[in-house]
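User: Show me an example of a complex going from sequences to structure tokens.

Assistant: Sure. Here are the input components:
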Amino acid sequence: MNYPVWDVPFLGSGWVVGIMAIIHIFLSHFAVGGGLFLPVMEAHARKHGDEAMLRWLRKHARFFLIVTGVAGAGTGVGIWVVIALANPQGVGHLIHGFVLGWATEWIVFIAEMACITVYYYGWDRLTPERHLKVGWLYAICSWLTLAVINGIITFMLTPGKGWAESHWMWDGFFNPTYAPSLIMRTLVMWALAGVYAFWTAATIEDLDLKERVLQVSARWVLPAYVLLPLLGGWYFLNIPPVSREVLQVGMAGAAAGNFSMATRVTMLTVMSTATIGVIVYFGPFRNARAFTRGMAGAVAVVALLATGASEWAREVARKPYVIRNVMYSNGVRVEQVEAFQREGYLPNSVWAREYAGLKGDTALARGEALYRGQCVACHTWDGYRSMQKFMAPRNLDSARNMVRMLRSRDPRENIYAKFMPPLAATEAEGEQLAAYLYQRAHPGPAAVARK
Amino acid sequence: MSVHAWLDDRIGLADFLSFLRKKEVPDHSHAVWYFLGGMTLFFFMMQVLTGLLLIVYYQPGSDASYGSVQRITSQIEFGWLIRSVHSWSANLMLLSAFFHMFSVFFMKAYRAPRELTWWSGMGLLGLGMGFGFSGYLLPWDQLAYFATKIGLDVMEKSPLIGKELATMLRGGADVGVITLQRFYALHAAVLPVLFMPLLLLHLWLVQKHGNAAPPSVTEKKSVPFFPTFLYKDLMVWFLCLNLLALLASLWPWDLGPQADKLASAPDGIHPEWYFMSQFQLLKLIPGKVGPVDGELLGMGLFGAGGVLWALVPLWDRGSRGRLVNLVGLGAVIVLIVLTIWGYAGVAGKG
């Protein structure tokens, strides 16, 4: 529209964001959970004069610094790059709407980085009391980064009635899913702190110490298992009714196999989480001495799967919006749809108009510009959500009918209305889009003429 | 009386547990490969379990087969899941069996006194591929029909009994309802009858001789089978179950249009991945190589390679470790290259 389109072949820009985000979340959750783990364990070790555990903690802190400070922070920057390319309109809206939030986020993040650096390099330079205080400060700063970003992420799914009426930042920030999401994520982060500790503790040679560390680390996983089902229910009750319906209908249809991808992924989250629970109980908790790094790696992989699946399900629950009731996933604002359907998409879209012009401004070129502007955010031509596959069995009339249907926002007229943005274009532009899609799926000079 | 004591009185549970505790598994840097045998066994058990459930609803016959699989997939509750788990676990079973075979080969675990363990394992792999080939036809959809047709054509070119075997399986000039009936009998009756005793023999031999450490490992370290190794094995099984659930729910097994003998073969038709290397080799060899039929030569080469591979316990006398490694490496490279080449050749054609 007002920005260029980032067309990623086969994978789609959404998946590039998704892959980057899942890796970042897996690392950054460790940064917060592990941030509490370090001072708690240090306080415990100092209280009991456990020098062996302190030596291990020092090694673990190094691992922690590298994983969170290098890989975690690096992928955080990566997310900014890819989301700005994939959905500049959405990012622009969030930046303008939460200026104070972003400023706070960056300040606490810098404080967090400073604290962990001082914490690691201060093992021999600071007094034990001061060193521990730096650890606690790190824990607070890292949790604050979560508390701030959680407000913005949950706003995208549930802006809430308060914000819809006032458009006041804090109404959007403390939205209906803010509290359940914050508590859930905090518990998951504690659990991940334990999971990451397995990795460094698995190779401890002193078997008594190994057993102690692994059993304590396993206990960090426990609160998540006790409380997550309850918190999940609370979160579920606060997500939009349409998203709830998708999951509920999916559950009902699971036996017949016709349930939604969101339901499948949610079930996978439950299954992989349960797997971690069983493995942690029988592994580091009950058989700590036999626990190996390979097993720790396997637990981490399943935890990554659980993280990825739950984040993916959350993203899908937001469909067809990038910010619910504000902006669709293709960057078109909800209030723009009517004007675009009346006046046209191309007259209102600088980049799309220019693109069509560069291609000769033919009907097919305008159709292509429309495809890039409104479809490419979620579809690829021959890969993920393939348009080629979708269009191959259709003739031109079928393509026209489908495009016509997509203009409606009424689920009774448009079967995709709950998952896809409406086509924000005039009827004539819709014809051009249909012709382009048909032509591309059925290449040959006479494809349109034949029909 | 406790359950433990009750069982102990009747079946000697304490003796059994004591035996398990005494049993040891070598512990070294290559010990991770020991899990592959257990993984193959796990996927086989999943095959048996889901296979028994599928038999309840599956009906062989030109119309009945397709209709029953369609009903299993779309009407029977969780039928789609059972069928998908069955298909995915079949592929994963063969994949882990191949890895298991190569790990045994490179660790020289076929050397005396484990020759029979190696041969029984080879037999199980062959029967496993037979399960895959015969099961593939059963849904009787377009892809299954033409892939089987190609598979039998390839088999026909094999030297010695290839032609006779293909004719017997086909039950006529062309793949038809008789073929389907025979494949079903093979899949659900003949192969299990052959497989089960061989599997028991293999497991008994593994139990008798224990796991072999590779010759390069000189330090004799070990861990008790119970509970240490068993716990790890069960954890791996649990992870395998996760993998199966992931694949079956995100990529449920498809059912194409019903087989139509008069239709043209789908573009890019090819056999399953475990037959892809043979398929590609046959494509590469010209129709005639001198006076010899090209396809016959190709299958002959593959067959000879297979025999040489199976007989490794006889020609590796301990001093040929380096040669064995080179042969193994060569085989792995040839199989991988031909398989990738085969898929590259059919990519985008169906």
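The lines above are the inputs; the final block is the predicted structure for all two components together. The mean pLDDT of chain A is 92.
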